[in-house]
Design brief:
This protein is mostly helical. It has 10 helices and 4 strands.
Length: about 350
């Protein structure tokens, strides 16, 4: 996978920008699926798979949120890699002895090589790993989150929301496609642009889409329908990283998120919703981008700001109506072992 981003291990020794060129994300992921009917040879089976993530990564953050909202913590365990990595692999340096306690490995690469010896593409998070064999099953993050909604239904918690309701899938897919191209990936197109021309094209494309999203969200609380869906999860993980990272580090600086009133209120609404803000680790996010992308930030200095307390200010979006979880209920608090360090999130100030 030549296209790099913070979910993709850089196999070139720290080079993220191609001088003179435009950033292109290689999307050739391991397309294996875990299915309810077992037709993929990898059947849904609670306790069998372990979700490998880094809280720094927006693509992995999607899976953490969806897993929480659907209540799949007991069915799918989670391995959390540290926020930084070297050119060899993401590491489980947060765990005692630097080794994941379930998979027994120090580096996520070991799971990839267990299935594909000599694997030459990027070592990515999120990834689903088969615990009995220690082999990676899939790293196709877009399909993975949809499959948690559609294939793991027998193991959803009572009151789990419908994040990918069948009646709205066409519209959700359409919104996801443009948000991915122009926003989720658009910030990387700005940050990893190798020429002024490539940067300017990406910059205008990003902010044109943010303006489109502002217009869409001015009169409705959520992106599709009147409840939270997969589309909101995908946009949120980029917005929550916008001011700490993308505005400065990736030069996405027409405005800060806090200077875009509609999107800022929308992001705060989601952040204050159980299952969203309580998955966000701002310290890991900043450390990853500023320490790993050394061709953009050669010193590796991590900025202290911005102030995070404003994430907890009233957003007023409830006036637009909508029901966050539809006919469902909020998730329970995360298991103690999976809670974000209280020092890394403003939610520490909330009872």
């Amino acid at each position: 996978m030549g296209g790099k981003g913070d979910e993709i291990l850089d196999r070139t020794g720290g080079k993220y920008v191609e001088p003179g060129g435009e950033f292109t994300r290689d999307q050739r992921y391991i397309a294996t699926r875990i299915t309810a009917d077992g037709s993929s040879d990898w059947p849904v089976e609670p306790g069998r798979y372990r979700l490998a993530v880094s809280r720094a990564c927006p693509w992995a953050n999607r899976l953490i949120i969806v897993r929480r909202l659907l209540g799949l913590e007991d069915a799918i365990s989670m391995a959390v890699a540290g926020p930084t990595h070297d050119k060899r692999s993401w590491t489980f340096d947060l765990d005692p002895g630097g080794r994941d306690p379930v998979l027994g490995i120090e580096r996520l690469a070991d799971a990839y090589f267990a299935r594909f010896p000599g694997y030459e593409r990027g070592i990515t998070v999120p990834a689903m790993v088969d615990v009995p064999t220690g082999q990676v099953v899939t790293n196709d993050y877009a399909q993975m989150s949809l499959d948690l909604s559609t294939q793991w239904t027998a193991h959803h918690r009572p009151g789990a929301p419908e994040l990918y309701p069948e009646r709205l899938r066409g519209e959700i897919d359409e919104v996801n496609a443009v948000v991915f191209a122009d926003v989720n990936n658009g910030v990387y197109r700005c940050g990893f642009a190798g020429s002024q021309e490539a940067y300017e094209r990406s910059y205008h494309r990003l902010f044109d889409r943010l303006d489109w999203l502002t217009e869409r969200l001015t009169g409705q609380r959520y992106l599709v329908g009147d409840t939270i869906t997969e589309a909101d999860v995908r946009l949120f993980t980029t917005l929550v990283r916008f001011d700490p990272v993308y505005h400065g580090h990736f030069k996405c600086n027409r405005q800060k998120l806090t200077e875009m009133p509609v999107l800022w209120a929308y992001a705060r609404d989601l952040f204050q919703t159980p299952g969203f803000g309580d998955t966000v680790d701002f310290d890991h996010i900043k450390r990853h981008y500023y320490e790993v992308h050394r061709d953009i930030n050669p010193t590796g200095v991590v900025p202290l700001g911005p102030d995070l307390a404003n994430w907890l200010t009233p957003h007023g979006r409830e006036q637009l109506g909508g029901r966050p979880f539809g006919d469902g209920t909020p998730p329970q608090p995360a298991p103690p072992a999976e809670r974000v360090d209280p020092a890394h999130t403003p939610l520490r100030d909330v009872d």
